[in-house]
Amino acid sequence: MPASTLKLHSYCGSSEMVPAFLKLNCFFSFSASILHIGKHQAALKVVPEDHLLLETDSPDQLPKQLRSDDPAKEEVCLDAAGEPVNEPRWLPLILQGAADVRQVAPADLAAQTAANARRVFGHLQVK
After folding, report:
1. pTM
2. Which of 5, 17, 69, 126 counts the highest number of beta carbons within 10 A?
3. Does the pLDDT of residue 110 top 80, yes or no?
4. What does the pLDDT read at residue 1?
5. Which residues of 62-96 are buried (b: 16+ CB within 10 A; e: fewer)?
6. d(Cα 81, Cα 111) in Å, to the nearest integer?
7. Cβ pair 97, 34 in contact under 8 A
8. What residues contact residue 65 under an 8 Å CB cut-off, 6+ apart?
């Protein structure tokens, strides 16, 4: 991977901007924002699979599905102020949402994004 490779953290730009960023060899990392209908999903649909990454953006961007006072919901961690925070354990929720938007199998998307992470962050252990 060239040193000039850019990683667009928690991408929230438009789908129209994707081609220009691809010319710069950018990788697009999507977080919980893709779980909501809108421009984030449109962008997720057009990013080539070999330039796609997923993230939680923990502790920010707790998925909306997990924000509730309903005790039947999954337990979430709270910060010092008692506010719910995002955690890496919610990555499968983001993976499922991304797979739904892209209309692919979650296992296939997991394998592709893990391979991309190894290419981009080769110095790190990615399982």
Report:
1. 0.85
2. 17
3. yes
4. 45
5. bbeebeeeeeeeeebeeeeeeeeebeeebbebbbe
6. 37
7. yes
8. 35, 93
